[in-house]
Amino acid sequence: MTKQQAPTQPPYAQIVAAIEDLPGLENLSEWLVNALAPITKRQKLMDLLHGRLLGHALHPALSDLPVGMWASVPLLDLVGDRRGATMLTAVGCVAAGATAATGTADWSVTYGRDRRLALVHGLANAAALALQLGSLTARLSGRTGRGRLLSIAGLAVGGTAAYLGGDLVLDRALTVNHTAFLSGPGEWTDVAADSDVTEGTLTAVDVDARKVLLTRVAGKVCALENTCTHAGGPLNEGTVEDGEVVCPWHGSRFRLSDGAVLGGPATFPQPQLEARKMRGRIQIRGRKG
C-alpha cells in the first residue's frame, strides 16, 4: 500500500501563508502596537474609528472610496480628461487617509497570524498611497506620462492589498458578526436551576451545540449569546461591571439587560434570547425581536 499524501494547499493559500510568516512582522507589530497605545487607549476615538455608531465596521465601507476613484483614473487618462484624472487622484488620496485610520484601529485589536497578515495589508496600502501621491505630484507639475505610470502601479499594489483584505474578512471573519448564524432553540428549553443564576455572576449553559450566557440584572434573568459578536470571545470568562459584561479578549462592553454594545471594538449588539422561570428552573428560547 502506498502512503496517502496529505492534501496540499492551493497556490493562493500558500502565498498568503508565506506572506504572514515573513520574518520581522511579529516584532514590527509589537512595536507599532506600543507606539499607537496613547491613541488606542482613547475609547471614544476608537469607537468612532471602529464604526460602533454606525452599527458595523467603518473601514470596509471607506475602503471602496479610494479604490473606486483610483480605478477610474486610467479611464479618464484614456479619454484625455487630465483635470478629472488629477482631481480623482487627489480625492482618492484624501479618502485613503481616512481609510487608513479606520483600518489601523481595526488592526490594533488583532492577534497572531491575523495581525501579521493585516500588517502586510496595511503596508501594501501605504505603498499604494505613496505611489498615488507620486502620481498626483507628477500630474500637478505637468509630467503627465509619469503620473499615468504611477497611477497604474499604485492601482496594482492597491489591488494586491485589497485581495489580502478580502482574505482577512471573508476567510478569517475579521470585523464581521460572529453570532450571525446562531439561532434557536425554537421551543422553550430547560437550561439551569433558578438558584444557579445569580446577580453579578456569568453562567454559561450548553444549548444546541453552543453556549448561552445567563445572569440576573435587578433580579431579572437575562440570556445573551455567549460568543462575542466582535471576534468570538467567550463572554462568560469576562467581567461584570455596572450591569455590563466586558469581553475578555478585546474589552468590548455589552449591556446585560438587552445586549446593546456600549464600547468597542465590537460594533454589533450581543443577541438576546427570551428567558423565563418555570417551577424553579430557567428556560430559554430563540432571540428576542
Quick synopsis:
With 289 residues, the protein is an alpha+beta fold.
Question: What does this 3D model show about the protein?
Answer:
With 289 residues, this protein is of the alpha+beta class. The protein has helices at residues 11-20, 25-40, 43-50, 59-79, 82-107, 112-140, 144-171, and strands spanning 189-193, 203-207, 210-217, 220-225, 239-241, 244-246, 253-255, 261-263, 272-278, 281-287. A hairpin with a 2-residue loop joins strand 5 (239-241) and strand 6 (244-246). Helix 4 (59-79) packs antiparallel against helix 5 (82-107), helix 4 (59-79) packs antiparallel against helix 7 and helix 5 (82-107) packs antiparallel against helix 6 (112-140). The protein is elongated and about 80 Å long. The termini are far apart.
**Largest sheet, spatial ordering of strands:** 1-10-9-4-3-2
* Largest β sheet strand count, sense and barrel closure: 6 strands, antiparallel
Residue windows where pLDDT falls under 50 for at least 5 positions? none
In sequence order, what are the helices and strands, one letter per element?
A: HHHHHHHEEEEEEEEEE
Radius of gyration: 24 Å
Percent helix range:
40-55%
Distance between the termini: 58 Å
pLDDT averaged residue by residue: 91
Find the count of extended strands (DSSP E, 2+ residues). 10
Shape: elongated
Residues in β-strands, percent: 15-25%
Structural classification: alpha+beta
Query: So how many helices?
Result: 7
